[in-house]
Amino acid sequence: MATRSAGGPRASSSGSRLGLYIDAIKPGITVSNTATAAAAYVFAAQPFSLATFLGLLLGTALVIASACVVNNHVDRDIDAKMARTAHRGQATGQIGATASFVYAAALGVLGLLVLLLLTTPAAAITGVVAWLLYAVVYTLAKHRTPHAALIGNVPGALPPVAGVLAAPTPRPADAIALFALLVAWQVVHFYAISIRRRDDYAAADVPVAALAYGVTHTKRLVLAGAVVFLLAALGLGAFGSAGPVATAVLAICALVMLFTAARGQRKDVDATAWASDVFGQTLVVILVLCAVLVLGPLERL
Ligand code: HEM
Ligand SMILES: CC(C)=CCC/C(C)=C/CC/C(C)=C/COP(=O)(O)OP(=O)(O)O
Fold first, then answer.
1. How does this protein lie in the membrane (predicted)?
2. 17-169: CATH architecture
3. Does ipTM exceed 0.95?
């Protein structure tokens, strides 16, 4: 039977107690997902309200952080077996069940209150739905099926939808195109990760795509994700509020990812190194997407 210390440095700490609690909210994921919500609000809000923007920023960050704490608690056994996650406080046993529960509840309740008081009911409801999908549905599915990636894709694509819905007059086309962009982006992002980290996932018996379908098939899914990203970028220009410059920048990002994805289909390419390149590119692309959304309104002046 699996024990929490197997494969992980149970006795070692990643730093101070505060450091462990910061780590427990997955700062990279919390910050980047919050950024997509905030950027989508700037893109969609006419007129812009600073109070709503700050409420969305804080409320979304707290709700995502809460979901990450729950996920880290449930995942503590598998996290202890993966080199990338073995240092986490819940995996090492330094953050127990009660502390996780209190921490997640405090973050979640505060986040929901901030969203309800400072944004719109639709944005707050989107936050609750995303919390349930990530903290409960994805987290339970991750251990059992490779389709978990597609389930996790939905909450990952909902923060920009919350951003649009926090605007005074949200445009459905913006919400739909941004949702599609994020879904496609995550296909590229996570299927590349599943290849790059496949040994880690194998050690923890997590059935990610690269293990369940094989590396060759997963590479094709990465390529498909890049194609859909291009279509969604064009859709944001054709049906949503993106101007020609914003659309062109996103299309260039899509073409770069497509080119890299296509290069990786060759048999002689080192799959792990290629997947790491793709992963790195997704991080640059999400930054560019946020910048395009923030600067996009300038094109409409
Ligand atoms: C199905 C959805 C997703 C899954 C399964 C997923 C999974 C992961 C994993 C496993 C890593 C660590 C990769 C490594 O170090 O090799 C990672 C990193 C990262 N992900 Fe995702 N991700 C998803 C969605 C998202 C979304 C929606 C965003 C942002 C909008 C995001 C942003 C990041 C960032 C910034 C990192 C690097 C920083 C960090 O490791 O914390 N991810 N993701
Ligand atoms: C408003 C709200 C709550 C939105 C949710 C946004 C969110 C946290 C998206 C991330 C999606 C995701 C599946 C991440 C990977 O988790 P993982 O458990 O596979 O990552 P790990 O292996 O690093 O623990």
1. Multi-pass membrane protein
2. Orthogonal Bundle (1.10)
3. no
